[in-house]
Design brief:
By secondary structure, the chain is an all-alpha fold. It has one domain. 71% of the residues lie in helices and 0% in strands. It has six helices and no strands. The longest helix is centred in the last third of the chain and has 17 residues. The protein is globular, with a radius of gyration of 12 Å.
Length: 94
Amino acid sequence: MSDKDIFKRLVDKGCALGLEKWVVEDVARYVIGHAPLGGYLEAVICNDLKGAFSRADETSMAEMPGLVKFLWNYVPSSCWGSKENYEMWLREES
């Protein structure tokens, strides 16, 4: 499967869960291209609940359970769940 196909699949799955398109596109770019994330998404990826809630707007707060479900079901566990996993994933080449 090509990177383009993986990107489309991730976006489709995330949007089907009711997530905003920009959220799943950012996560897909992170997964495929090892692109850094910012604020809210980085906190969620790093399993930093306090940081995620302190950075989330109302829409993001409402979508957080869906985002975690998306990560759990469609994103490699080696690239999320802790700050260490996040930093290691960024260091790896795409």
